[in-house]
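Figure caption, in words: inputs first, then the predicted bound structure.
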Amino acid sequence: MRKKIVISYFAIIIVLTSTFALIMMNSTNNMMTLQLQNRFVNECDLLKQVFVSEYQNKGNVDFDFRSFVNDASRELDTRVTIIYEDGTVLADTHEDPAKMNNHLNRAEVIDAIRTDKMGTSIRYSNTVKADFLYVAVPAHIGGETWIIRVSKQLTEIKEMNQHILNVAVVSIFGTAVFALLMSIFVSKRITKPIDALTETANEIANGEFGRKIYIEANDQIGELAQSFNKMSQTLSSSMSELRQRNSELEAILNSMINGIIAVDQNKNIILINKFCFDILDLPQDYVVENESMYKIIRNEEIANMVECAIIEGQSQMKELNYVHTEKILRIYVNPIIAATKEILGSIVVIQDVTQIRKLEQMRSDFVSNVSHELKTPLTSIRGFVDTLKNGAIHQPETAMRFLDIIDIESDRLYRLINDILLLSEIESMDREPEQTEVEVSSVIEEVVDILELRANEKGLKLVTEVEASPVIHANRDRIKQMMINLVDNGIKYTEKGEIRVKLGTQGSWVVITVSDTGIGFNESHKERLFERFYRVDKGRSRSQGGTGLGLSIVKHIVLLYKGKISVSSQPGKGTTFEILIPNAKR
Ligand SMILES: Nc1ncnc2c1ncn2[C@@H]1O[C@H](COP(=O)(O)OP(=O)(O)OP(=O)(O)O)[C@@H](O)[C@H]1O
Ligand SMILES: [Mg+2]
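Bound structure (adenosine-5'-triphosphate present):
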């Protein structure tokens, strides 16, 4: 830009100066020539009058042409020639007339005769080898005509021209230097604010919104700078507003507990929230924006739903098993419709309903299990009551046996209902409301007291190994219940050997282990062992009077006190349950 300004400024000044110099030179030349010509005309006229009077005085014979021209030439400092009307040169100050050819064809002579006043001409003289100005006037004496001609070499004009040319060259050169300096200065003045504008515009383009320029000028550049600053300010505030809105939107999207994916018409991802990564089990740093939706969702049903929404503009909902993450997902797909009714893409909302469905399944399993468990003893009781009513009551021995069975079954029913109630009570609790400091060793002692007899009856030993006397925050009755359930299992599922209860500490944990030398079970049961009503051997458990709720209650009590439970078992060798509960005095 600056280069352009410098070049154009420079060119304009040089062209103008040169033109002006040329015009000046030309007109000076013309003026000088005209002045010289006028002088010559006057001199020539004067000479003519002198010639006429001298010629008339002296007469044809005595008049000496030669000395006349020489005298005149000396006087006027010019070349003087006298030509007769037929063109013959009679005398010349610079040449021998005899050697000179006829002069009737000379332009000044022709003009002088034609106008009968005077004729002029500027011509290159071969004789003297220079430019000459010729002025000729006719002189009439008694019917005869002479042409008096004066001429002069144009050295004066030439010198003058040379001088003007020198001055012009010097002044053009001076002007050129001046023009160059001026144009650099002017271009700097013009381009400086533009450079500043360009620089600031570049900064804004690089994201530095709100940048300002400081130009103190009252012209258009100043106005431009003001508008520019205003624009920059508006841009900056719009950008920060946009950023704010964007981060708000992002925060909203990311705090949603549903996965959201927006795709364009080509099924490329425009937007995705964090939750989607969790649901679809994707690494959090996985870059998916602008990538195809199929990069993260490999499910034909979802693909069809999106296709349908984009092509037909239909909203859809489906629940499906997503095999890649083993989750049950509820998928809502809606078209994204612009104000112009054009379908821009589709929005997919993914809801993880795995837990809900699992809970529903567990609840319905529980209900059917409970009703089955209740039905069994009740059917048995009703059957025996009917048999008694139908006459068995009159056979005392049979009646007594039947009544015993009814007693056992109703006891079982009672325990079952108690267990269900206890379980639901613990399950509904977030934390224990009646919490005290419980000395675990005393609980173990009490449990051993209660169950020792039963163990001994089966020929089993009940051993305790108390290594410490830790205290936990809990409800004593529940800890007792937990211990009873575990030791009871040990007695129930052990035929010979012992049941050992150990108490110790491990860091900030109180560790209780209950191990036996019983029948044990296979690894495959471990996972489901703590489920309600789960029994490894249904027949055996039932014959032992078990409901299948014992371990479930144990697990919930442990969880209520933020503890952990684990089990290891080997079929035919025995089973060990290990419970960790936070130590109250850590
Ligand atoms: N110490 C153990 N040795 C072997 N199997 C066990 C042991 N403890 C529990 N089991 C298995 O786990 C199942 C579930 O135990 P849980 O205590 O919940 O029910 P239960 O003992 O059958 O009935 P109850 O509700 O009367 O305790 C049992 O049926 C049994 O098959
Ligand atoms: Mg049990």
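Residues 1 and 213 are 20 Å apart (CA to CA).
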